Amino acid sequence: MPATPPDQPDPDDHRDDLLDMVADRLRHHPAHADVDRRARELRGRVEALLDDTGRRILGDLEGAWADLAHLHAQVALDVGLSHAAARRERVLREVTEQVAVLVADPALDRGARLDVLVAVGRTLL
Amino acid sequence: VKDWFKTIDRARTARGDQPLHELLIGILAKHERRAGTVKKILRAQDRLRRALGKDGVKLLLAYESACTDRLVSGEELAYSLGFEHGRAHAHAEAVEDPAVRTLAAELGELLGAKDVEDAAKVRALAIVIAGVAVGERGPRP
Predict the structure, then answer these.
(1) Is the Cβ pair B130, A125 closer than 8 Å?
(2) With a cut of 0.85, is the ipTM above it?
(3) pLDDT of chain B along its 141 residues, tens only?
(4) What is the distance in angstroms between the Cα of B22 and the nearest Cα belonging to chain A?
(5) Angle of the A11-27 helix axis to the A52-104 helix axis, nearest 10
């Protein structure tokens, strides 16, 4: 695979930055903070019932949940980005098609031009 | 970050499209890494259930439920952040797009024209604005 040129941002680095941002936002998100506090509290109560072996297994379980949450966040971030890109493509394509009507016929009268603008509004809906 | 996840999920559901959580689960189900991690979770759960008494198992289940809630909350925020980031990028690109520039110029010219009735100007403007507003509220990804 060719290396990313130094002047081009690496998409994976960028995604990692966004994932860091997700983690940071989560820390400051009240609803998430509540559920996180609850999970930690319950974990502590389960831990208190276990011996050393049980605590090690609980640690593994916690690690696996963290991996799973990271993977889910990664996929959700990618889907969010791709949905925004799909929307951008759709809107630009439809606006371009409508505007092409205006550009193609400079003699189009005022009423017809207004109709095209109305059509643009409708395609955005 | 705006809660794009809920906004778009509502719009998708209203259109009869697959809800976003289902869409994500469908994508995640194809990930080998996910399958391996879920196996680890199930194995650890099984061992812990055997080590804990009845009350302990109840606590473990409550802990697992909180872990699921935490995962879902992270998933929704990650989607919203991804969508918002992509949207900001789209806005920056759209400003440079020739079609958008032409549209803005046309709209500006028509609104300033003396030979167009005000009612017609308002109608055109209202529909374009409504289109943008609805696009903001419930876009179609």
Answers:
(1) yes
(2) no
(3) 788 999 999 988 998 999 999 999 999 999 888 999 999 999 999 999 999 988 899 999 999 999 999 999 999 999 999 999 888 887 777 777 777 788 778 778 877 878 777 777 777 777 777 766 665 555 555
(4) 12
(5) 120
